[in-house]
Amino acid sequence: MAATSLAEQLQKLSVPQATVYKDDKKKASLLFNPNEAAAKDRDTFYEIGISGLNELISLYEGFRLYEDTLFSISSKDFERAVQTKEVNENLDQTIEKFLLQLSPYLLLQSAHKALEWLVNRYHIHQYNVDAVMALILPYHETKIFVRFVQLLIIKKSSRWVWLKPIQKNGVPLTKQVMYNQCVSNPDTLHFIAKNTLKYVQEYGERANQLNTVFAYFCSTAIGAMNTSKKVTEGMISALLPTLVKALDSPISDFRSSAYVVLGFLSTKAKIKTDTINVIVDKMLTTEFDLSYDVVLLINLLYTNQEHVTKLSDVILNDMSDDIMINLCEHLKKLVELKINIQPFALALLSGILPIILSDIEEFRRFCQLPVILIDEVDLKGQQPEKIIKCILDAYHPKTQPSGNNVDGDESDVEIIADEDDFSFKILTWFSALLKNIEVKYPLEFDKVIKQEMRSEGKKSTMRQKALSKVLTFKPAVAHKVGGTYLFENLNHVNPDLRVEAVKYIAKEFHSLKAENIDFVKDSVINRFNDDNPAVVAVTLKIPDECLKEVLTDVDLTTTFVKIISKGVGIKKWRPVVKEAILKFCSLDVLPVNHETVLALIPYLFPQSKNAAEITWHIITSSWGKKFGFSKHLKGITETFKDNAEVLNQAIFRILFIDRTVNFDDILDISQLNKDSTIDVCFYLLLKSCSFKTATVEEINNVLNLLLESVENRAIVASTVTQAFVVEIMPEIITLTCQNKILFETIEYIFSRIIDDMNVTGITTPWCNVCESTDTVLVRRLYEICITGCAIPSYAENYSQLLQKLLGKFFTDPKDKFEFVANFACGHILYATDPKDIISPELQLRTMKLLSNFIAAQDKAEWLFDSDVVILLILFNLNNPISAIRQSVIDFINDLLREFPKENLVYVQLLKELMAHKEEVLLDNEQILHVLNTILTQQSIGNKLFRKNCLLKFAGILAGQAPAHIKSSFLNILSHLNNSNAFTHIIQSLSSVEKVLKQNENPKFVLNIYESNLLKSVYRHINESTVSAFANDEVWKSIEFGLKEYRECIFEVDQTFTSPCVQILKQIDEDMFKKVPEERTKVLVYLIAAAGAFSNNPTISSAASKCIKKIYVKFSDFYPIFEGMLNVKDPAANVPKKKKTTAVTLLSYQLTETSEWRLGVTLLEYVQNKKKMSVDNSFVAILFQLLNRCLRFEEQSYVEYTKQLILSSLWYYCKKFVNDTDKDQLKSLKSVFEVELIVQCIRGTQNPQTHHHALILLSHAAYMMPEQVLHHTMEIFTFMGSSVLRHDDAYSFQIITKIIETLIPILVKLEKNVEDYTEKELKKLQDRVVPVLRIFADVVLHVPEHRRLPLFKKLIETLGPSQFMWVFLALLLETHVAHFNELKKKNKSSKRTLADQDAPIDRLDFGQSLLLEFPAEIGIENFIKLITYAKTLPLQKDENEMDTDVDPSDIFSVNGHTAIQVRHFIYVVITFINTCLASSRFIQHCSQAADIKTLENHYKTIIVNILTFIQSISKVNDERIEKYRRVMLHHSYDLLDHTNNLLSAPMFISVIRGLLKHNLMTVRRKSMELHNSKIQYNPEMFNDVSKELIFSLLPALLDIVKTLENNDNCLDDITAQEMELNQQTALLSLKLLTRMLASDNPEPFKPVMESITDYTCNPNISGQVTASVVLCLAELCGNLKVHALSSLRRFMPALIKVLKKQRKTETPELVLLSTVTAISKIVESLPLFLSPYLQKILYEYSILLAKWQNYDQECSKVSAIVAKLSHIKKKIASSIPPRVLIPVANETYQLLLGKENFDAIGPVMSVLADSFGNVTTADFTALQLDLTTFFLSALQLRSDTVDKDVDLAVIDRAEDQIVNALVCLVLKLSETSFRPFYFKIYDWAIRTNVEGHKDRTITFYR
Q: Of 1029, 1020, 905, which is closest to residue 969 (Cα–Cα)?
């Protein structure tokens, strides 16, 4: 029973948490095996975890959140087993969030490290199993999963018990096992789905990192469903909440996984209709764009879930037109992929159509949705019959029958009741919808309609009536004919039924027409177009009147032509065609148009008697009369109506012989069916009837049609005749029906074109055959003829045509030759149409023709002197086609075979060319070189030939040859570069120049050939030909070209250019050098004028480039500047009112003069020109021009001119001035007028002008700095004084530019001031001081609102860190110098409240200027000011003054009196003091950005202040004693103000830096500042980083460690200073310990070690020892258990110190400190003082016995006694009686042995107090010891009988003993007291056999 009870108790004690600690030899670990993990301490695991966390933080910053929670230092001591439920719940939430965040990184080593800590410290493998599983399940096939599962503590009741085999075997979890578990236990599937959603919610926008989780969820869900034979309700319930949430998730991967799972689920299980509606509604109305995946899924749902037959109202209510359009876009893609969308389409229509029919509002809202579906989606392969049936089924209108018949028994018309407006809209809408469907799916539509119409029954009848109405035909149309309906019969496959239907229409025509005329019309037309002759024949029997009523002329024409076309070559249609011709031609409404004419023309040439009758009927019919046959066939009577021959000849004569009928108004090529050979053939023949009146364009169109038609058709020759006669017409008709064309037809058409065409513009000898439509037509005919000549079968025919063509224009063979020669040179011609280009084949054929021409001529001497022949040869020798070049060589050979005269120039030339034939045959470009060689070779015999040849060529160029010949000829002569030839070449421009002069249109454009001619001539302008410019005629043409600014030259690339540009491009440096001297100035003038007056940017650009290329002298363009300078003002002659000004101002009209514009343009060109020769006279005239610009009344007109002048001056100074040439500089200074540049700045507001002026000034500052500086100050003066006349911001911008530009030059700031060394910076300062002094002197003269920005810019330019303090010092010096004036001024006027914000003196301005810069710069400059002030002497000979001072001195001591020197130092300190105390500056400092720099500056300034104070303190001069005190006062204020600026972190950082300073005074003062802050303002450190405060500890310890310095060489003062620093440092450590050590013990452990060492050091002085001991006490009091390691070292030392103080008679500091220390240690570590308790108690009793007898009025004595009493209380209350009583006994015995009876009282007092805590149990345990002790203590009186001890002492001691005994007795129960009492009684009475009376006395006391 006992065993059972014990087991139950142990079970209760063994709470779940206790299992964590059950085995110390093994420990759960993720990274180590259990034994290894048990061997590692907690710090090791913590470091591993922190390492992993830091790595995770580097990957994702969000992990930093867990630094202060799961991974905080305090977590090392955290034990969740002993925490409350609430704490553990919060911890679980934190762990779960961490594990969720860890998922993407689980496979990383860093994650494993972090998890190791969670396992080790928080035991997540036991407490957080679900959270761990949520983390590792997506990785179930990895090793980390297996490792973690093996760690888990899985109970039998856990949902994870199925993982036990994994734990045991250590193998990964396969997918199939996972799927099986999800099937068998849907709760697992629910867990996976729920956690997937939890992941998404936790990650938010970062959820795209969860690819692994989504993939796992998707694969598991699909795998589970696939594994299960039937998807259960539980599985669906587990998945659906997550899937529905996923559908509107912003995470695309999450949505995609849901789509996949839902799609698979729809194939495996039946989903509730409501659920599907919710899913579909969510997908359609989500905020994301409707995607293809969504539509695919929706379609899949409706395909697989067959029980859902329509879209719900909820879904449809959320549908809009935009959604429907997007939906259909994706449905189209599904259809393209042959995916079945029919179920969804049916569901959509089934849902939406009833809603549309319900009421007008719903109709308006949804009527477009079905329309969009039908229009957008092709349902061809989607069984459209069902969809059509669905739509028809949805229509249920309300009707009322009418019993009235319209036509009795002959008609079955019913009247359907008229519905209201809504019904009418529905009917209209449904009709349109069905019409659309019928168009798209006619066969399926007809099939459904037929089925509906065949249905029988009452309901079917009503339905058929309704459908009849909605299908836009009446029931009469559905009348039964032979058991079927008319509608069906009309479209029936059986032609007999169609025949019956047509007969019925003819019978019921009028009634049907009255009901539905459109139906009747469509039916008639469709049957006319029927493919069965019988049906068409029956249709033709419909009366003419009926046809006229329903068919228009267009309908008749179309129908008639189609019927006629069917009869071509098909016998069975011929009777029908005959009937059609007879019927339609008799209709007066049949028009005479293109279609009817071409359809009937073949029937006008009969071949038989029957055909003749048809022809006669056509001629005499209504149609024939309209055509006009009757007036042309006079003499042909009805007797000939069956005579085919007569009719044939008559018609042929009318059409093709007499050509009396004009078909131009009838025939239309746009209506021609070009695929029909018969139509094309007769179209061409009929069009040939009117060629005489046809335009060239119309003939070209016919020619094009002819050539196009013969491309893919066979051409055959006639078997009847070789001419185009009447007998050939039947053959033509027969062959065209076979898609063949008769050659005679083609020949006839060509002949007609040549004979009848009206062509002009054919010139001789040269003709551009590609230029106009006329010549192009001739060219095409020529090409056809000459090409045809190569066809053997028809060569003779085409030869005759060619002769006819040439004979039409020329009779003389020479003219024919020269005309044909144009075709041989065809490659030089351009054509607008690529088809019109003369091909190489045509050129070759032409050359052959010309060779044949030569061979055929008997006498042709003109050939050897013909320009045409020689140019023909030269042009073709330049042809890139080698075959053509060879043909030309053959042509030359043929010519030379005729034995021409040898002295003829061209004959010699031909022979020369033949001498180079190999070269020209090799390359077409060789002709250029060959011709140049022939014309330039220097042999004497050829001189006359060359001259004559050049004259011949000049004659061609100067003659009447057209431009295309001249330009091509010039290309041949392009290598002929000499001045002599150029004089001839340029003559070719006379004709073009004449054209240009005659046409003044500014947009006039030369043709391509004239343009090429100009370009060819201008290309000859080069350094070899430029000497010809001296020729007046040549120069005249060049000048004309340079003055022609119009872009009249047409380029091949469709752009335009001007002759001026062409010439300018040819002018380069080499060419310009050789221009005749007399033409140079004029040429420069013309180039500049082109840029100035052309108003064309292209010309201006070309002129500018030209000027840049050439090398010009100043003399070449000086006249232009002179003209600009001397041009008169046009407004000068206009009388004006008298003005008082001495200088006449110029008007803007001057800038509009040509001289001024020309000068401005030239300035643009020379402002940065490198290639020119100029001297100082160039500068002089530029300044004259600048001076004239400044005289303009309105400066805005000359701003650009001034900029150009300034830019030109700057460029001259930079490029052409040698800084080392003193003579040149001297000469330049004489003409360089700086004041004019300054006026440019002062007189304008244009920033560009200022920019150029400043650049010029900056460059001039190098050459003439004094002059520039002088005038620069004028700028500042001006800008300051003209504020009221100028915009402030703008004027300041100018000042800024000036400062930025000139100041660096004036002070020779050659690089960034930051890059200067100290030595270089000192030299720079010497140059800066004089400049800054000038600015400092004028501070108060600058307007107040501009003052601050100006000087801020000045300081920024020089460098605020380097020279702000210099300016401030100069400002303060100026203040001192003007002090007396300022005092007088201040007495006379007081500042008002309104003035207080604006500085009125230099000091206020200095402070405002400081605030414009960052705080760190301000402090840095204060440091430099204080440092500079320290260098100034406070004492100086009053009479010592020196007027010769160095201008580079900031404050010359020799140049000022002693009072001024001291005043200056005073002003510096008070100025800095004022700034630091200013609320504005304090605010400024708080916003500082560079805290680190500011911190360093604070350290430096504090050091400088302290050293300054030290230097002031050392002054010992009675004369300035008052000054010294004042300065000390201000200096200490300065220190306080600096201290106040520091924030708590910065204060700590500054103090830390100062603690390392070399000066002991600085270190001590910094510690005092620190101690003061901690003592009086500790809350300021609440938000400071503890690590920052801890950083003070090493520095303070370093100061304390100077205790180890045993250097005896130190003087007393230094030793005293050092000791003082040590005490201050110890105090600082004590205060820091009190503030931080209790919560942060680790940083103070080293302090504890060091203080312990010094406590044990006996050689430390008393004062320092006191501080050490107090510090130690504070450390113990706050570190508590962390001080135990040092306890054994410092306690003996403390006790030793205490022992030394026994004999002291005065209450020394060491004694008080030691007692205080012991007091705190006893209070802090009472339970650990057992080894030292006896000694503490002993020393305590001696000291208390001694000092309690002293005067308690003394504060020191009372303090010691109080501390000793505190020790007593702490020992009594903290030490257990079992420990204290033996110690007290031992102490008592020791005191007794030492006979120190006064000290017994304090010991007993301790015991007495301790008994207040004694319990009965304690007494029972200690009864024997207590009894023995008190019996021994009560023996005191007896033991001292024999000793000489004062009874009063014994009485006092015995009183304390008795008091202690009484205290004990009072705590005892009666049971405990009795035995104890009897023992004492026995001791005193019963066992007192010896009769010691002292025992009795003691007992009764």
A: 1020
User: Tokens at residue 316, please?
Assistant: 């449809």
The whole-angstrom separation of Cα 1669 and Cα 1660 is 11
| CA 989 and chain centroid, separation | 58
- Type and span of the H or E element at 78: none
DSSP category for residue 1557: -
Q: What is the pLDDT of residues 72-81, one digit of tens each?
A: 888 887 888 7
Q: Give 893-939 pLDDT, tens digit per residue.
A: 888 887 777 778 888 888 888 888 898 888 888 888 888 888 887 76
- C-alpha distances in angstroms, 181 versus 130, 154, 257, 515? 16, 16, 21, 74
- Beta strand pairing status for 1172-1173 and 1112-1113? parallel
Whether the upstream peptide bond of residue 370 has omega within 30° of 0, thus cis, is no
Q: Which tens digit of pLDDT belongs to each residue from 1785-1806?
A: 777 777 776 766 766 768 777 7
Which of these, 1341, 1338, 1345, 1486, lies nearest to 1408 by C-alpha position? 1345
Task: Please give the single-letter amino acid code of residue 1288.
Answer: D
Pair of tokens at residue 1855: 């009183």
Count CB atoms within 10 A of the CB of residue 1478: 15
Look at phi and psi of residue 1516 and say left if phi exceeds 0, alpha if psi is from -120 to 50, else beta. beta
Antiparallel, parallel or unpaired: β 1056-1057 and 1049-1050 = antiparallel
Query: Could you tell me which of 1408, 1333, 1405, 1340 has the C-alpha nearest to residue 1363?
Result: 1333
User: With the CA atoms of 1225, 1229, 1234 and 1237 taken in that order, what torsion angle do they form, in degrees rounded to the nearest 10?
Assistant: -60
Look at residue 1468 in the predicted model and tell me its pLDDT. 87
Question: What token pair was written down for 1888?
Answer: 């007192």
> Structure tokens of 1709?
């500091």
Residue 1455 burial (C-beta neighbours within 10 Å; 0-12, 13-18, 19+): middle
Q: How far apart are CA 1222 and CA 1229, in angstroms?
A: 10
Of residues 1499 and 1370, the one with the higher pLDDT is 1370
Question: Beta-carbon neighbour count of residue 1311 at 10 Å?
Answer: 9
> Nearest-CA neighbor of 1170 among 1120, 1204, 1214, 1222?
1214
976: region left, alpha or beta (phi > 0 left; psi from -120 to 50 alpha):
beta
In one-letter notation, the amino acid at residue 994 is K
Judged by DSSP in three states, 740 sits in strand
Tell whether pTM > 0.70: no
1644-1675 in b/e form (b: 16+ CB < 10 A) is bbebbebbbbbbbeeebeebbbbbbbbbbbbb
Tell me which residue has tokens 């209510």. 317
What are the tokens at 258?
């849901």
Q: Which of 1262, 1352, 1272, 1362 is nearest to 1312 (CA)?
A: 1362
- One-letter amino acid at 1783 equals V
What mean pLDDT is predicted for residues 468-496?
Answer: 59
pLDDT given at position 1155: 92
- Which of the two residues, 903 and 1001, has the higher pLDDT score? 1001
Residue count (the chain): 1901
Neighbouring residues of 1473: CB distance < 8 A, sequence distance ≥ 6: 1530, 1533, 1534, 1537
Distance CA 61, CA 1639 (A): 28
137-142-146-147 Cα dihedral, nearest 10 degrees: -110
Beta bridge partners of 481: 484
**Where does the pLDDT of residue 415 fall: very low under 50, low under 70, confident under 90, or very high at 90 and above?**
very low
Name residues whose C-beta falls within 8 Å of residue 1437's C-beta, 6 or more positions apart in sequence. Answer: 1458
Question: Taking the CA atoms of the chain, what radius of gyration do you get in angstroms?
Answer: 62
- Nearest alpha carbon to residue 1171 among 1122, 1124, 1121, 1106: 1106
Asked if residues 1202 and 1244 have their Cβ atoms less than 8 Å apart, the reply is: yes
Query: Parallel, antiparallel, or unpaired for β 740-742 and 480-481?
Result: unpaired
Tell whether the model's pLDDT for residue 1537 goes beyond 90. Answer: no
What is the structure's pLDDT at 1755? Answer: 58
SS3 content of the chain, % helix, strand, coil (to 5): 75, 0, 25
